[in-house]
Design brief:
globular, alpha/beta, 17% strand, 43% helix, binds ligand TLP, single chain
Length: 339
């Protein structure tokens, strides 16, 4: 099977496994795991933040970001297709008792005026608007980069109106690879930033939340409350550290393969959104049926935004797999699915 469902499906490389085997460990709840401490410092530096916190998943680091950025009963503004809203099982309501207000914007980008119009004025009837969540790259938009200027403008408007800003940067290094803009440039406009080592960077598990020292002290408490305090976590943190040290630059290869996949599918007659990073959105009449047909041909994908399927390139697919995937999709167009 050629698995293009997500960049989360990768297996640890030999080098990564060796780093895990050799990692010095300690009890991280006591703050005594040298590998976790090294990882947190490394990522904080990389993102230009004072501190960072290691956690099991991007969902958890996003939810910790929501938790430390809000109080009970407040409102979070975010794009209607954002991961925090669509794919996190209603966690902001469950874990932080906050309300979400979704906004529209092309490619996951929020116009500053849309943000301004959504911020509530002080009135006893209204929840207080407290946090703006932005996502880069934007998953449901098809891996679109949030242009730095637009990001800075939305964040500046939020701050002017007294809101904090959280960045879901699960694939932030894909944005860096696609544009040459250092990840830290986006982070400079956010109070908290979540990044994942388990997406394109290829680690088996692990995300980090970065921010100023005070934010991360609070985040550490929230991580414990959410059940994310881990003990000899260095054994897995070593994989994340290896991923950040070795797999950031190679993301450009995934992007090139995504472009090749898009070109091949177009040649086969599909309508494909031009990928900016490693996610390819293909328009099909009936996504579930198409995915079934594709899987019978040995290729896996997932549903994308309505009317699209998503195919994702990653560390475990090379040029040959991309070629095979194109051939598989071409066979399906040659034999239209019966309805
Ligand atoms: N996204 C997964 C699925 O949950 C949809 C995927 O396959 O793309 N933020 C963004 C933008 C994400 O895409 C994801 C994972 C997360 C956060 C959550 O990360 P995990 O899976 O570590 O909780």
């Amino acid at each position: 099977m050629i698995d293009l469902r997500s960049d989360t499906v990768t297996r640890p490389t030999q080098g990564m496994r060796r780093a895990m085997l050799e990692a010095p460990v300690g009890d991280d709840v006591f703050g005594e795991d040298p590998t976790v401490n090294r990882l947190e410092e490394y990522v904080a530096d990389l993102l230009g933040k004072e501190a960072a916190l290691y956690a099991p998943s991007g969902t958890m680091t996003n939810q910790i970001g929501v938790h430390v950025g809000t109080s009970r009963g407040e409102e979070v503004l975010l794009h209607e297709g954002s991961h925090v809203f669509v794919y996190e099982a209603g966690a902001p309501a469950m874990l932080s008792s906050v309300q979400l207000r979704t906004l529209s914007g092309e490619n996951g980008v929020l116009d500053p005026e849309t943000v301004r119009a959504a911020v509530r004025h002080e009135d006893v009837h209204f929840p207080r608007s407290r946090l703006l969540c932005l996502e880069n790259t934007h998953n449901t938009a098809g891996g679109k980069v949030y242009p730095l200027e637009d990001f800075a403008a939305a964040a500046a408007t939020a701050k002017e109106l007294g809101l904090k800003v959280h960045l879901d940067g699960a694939r932030l290094f894909n944005a860096q690879a696609a544009t040459g803009v250092p990840a830290s440039e986006w982070c400079a406009h956010a109070d908290s930033v979540s990044v994942c080592s388990s997406k394109g960077l290829g680690a088996p598990v692990g995300s980090l939340l970065a921010g100023d020292k005070e934010t991360i002290i609070e985040a550490r408490r929230a991580r414990k409350a959410f059940g994310g305090g881990m003990r000899q976590a260095g054994i897995i943190a070593a994989a994340s550290l290896y991923a950040f040290e070795n797999h950031v630059d190679r993301l450009a290869e995934d992007h090139e393969r995504a472009r090749n996949l898009a070109a091949g599918l177009r040649e086969a007659g599909y309508e494909v959104q031009e990928p900016e990073t490693n996610l390819v959105l293909v328009a099909v009449d009936d996504p579930p049926e198409f995915l079934q047909a594709l899987s019978r041909e040995g290729v896996l994908g997932t549903p994308g935004k309505p009317g699209y399927v998503r195919l994702c390139t990653h560390l475990d697919v090379g040029d040959e797999e991309i070629e095979i995937a194109i051939q598989a999709a071409t066979r399906i167009t040659a034999n239209p699915i019966e309805r």
